[in-house]
Structures are given as structure tokens and as C-alpha cells.
Design brief:
single chain, 154 residues, mainly alpha, three-stranded antiparallel β-sheet, 6 helices, 3 strands, globular, DNA-binding transcription factor activity
């Protein structure tokens, strides 16, 4: 059961935020939500989920020299091990990832991307980078009180 908002302990952080700082936080969250919605839609257009895309990014960035285990993936995605195992099963079923027994610990599975995943990830990464470049001001200047997120809405 979730704790009530008032009962949740929060570390003391000093002076309360100014109205401008509250506005900056709201702009940041709006910009982030907008980008995540774009990301989800872009992944969906390729038949992936946003979580699949994030998992493939983790696997790709580690590379073949340092393959990712299911536990590593769970840690990187901030999810439980059993959730990562289910995610990997879906990625294997979609032919995006294959498991390989870890030669140094046969109880562990290492994750390798398939060529299909490599091509899909390259497309998704390209459109994400393009979008980030287009919206870089929204992220870089999030604490700038003069920016109105509605002006940057697509």
C-alpha cells in the first residue's frame, strides 16, 4: 500500500524553491514527458516498445566485448531481475536478442543483439538524436526562466 503524500519523509534540502524554480521544474518535466512520448511513438512505429528500445541501447553500448547479463539489464533499467528476465524473453521471441551462456559462469545468460535489432536500433537512435538536436534548447535551457514550453510544442 502506498504511503500518503503527507506521510512520505523527504530529506531537508534547504530553502524552499522560488516561483521561478518551480516553473523551471515544471518546464523540465514537460520537456521530458514530451520527449518520452515522442520516443514511445517512434519505437511503436518500428514494432517496439520504449522499454525494448532502452534495453537494446544498454546491450548495444556494452558491445560484444562486455556482454550484458539479465541482472545487468535489470540494474540499468531500474527494474527487478524477474521483470528483466520477462523482458529478455519478449526480446528473444521478437528475434531482437539472443541469449548466450556466460563461459565464466554457466548459470548466467549474456545478451547479444541480432542483426534485426541492430538495424532497428540504428533507425530509432537516428530519429532520437535528430529530435534531441532539434529540441536541444528545451533541454539545455530548462532553467532559463524566459522560455515558454508551449512555444516549443510540436
Amino acid at each position: 500500500m502506498a504511503k500518503s503524500f503527507a506521510a512520505t519523509p523527504v530529506a531537508e534540502a534547504g530553502a524552499p524553491p522560488s516561483p521561478e524554480e518551480f516553473a523551471a521544474l515544471a518546464r523540465f518535466r514537460y520537456t521530458l514527458r514530451k520527449f518520452l512520448a515522442f520516443s514511445e511513438q517512434a519505437a511503436g512505429e518500428l514494432g517496439m516498445t520504449a522499454q525494448w528500445y532502452q534495453a537494446l541501447l544498454v546491450i548495444k553500448t556494452r558491445g560484444a566485448e562486455q556482454p550484458v547479463s539479465v541482472g545487468d539489464l535489470a540494474e540499468e533499467l531500474l527494474i527487478k531481475d524477474h521483470s528483466a528476465a520477462e523482458l529478455v524473453s519478449r526480446l528473444v521471441e521478437a528475434k531482437l536478442v539472443r541469449r548466450k551462456v556466460d563461459p565464466s559462469d554457466r548459470r548466467r545468460s549474456l545478451l547479444l543483439m541480432t542483426p534485426l535489432a541492430d538495424r532497428g536500433l540504428a533507425k530509432l537512435a537516428a530519429v532520437h538524436l535528430e529530435r534531441l538536436r532539434e529540441d536541444s534548447d528545451a533541454f539545455l535551457n530548462v532553467l532559463d526562466g524566459n522560455r515558454d514550453p508551449k512555444r516549443q510544442a510540436r
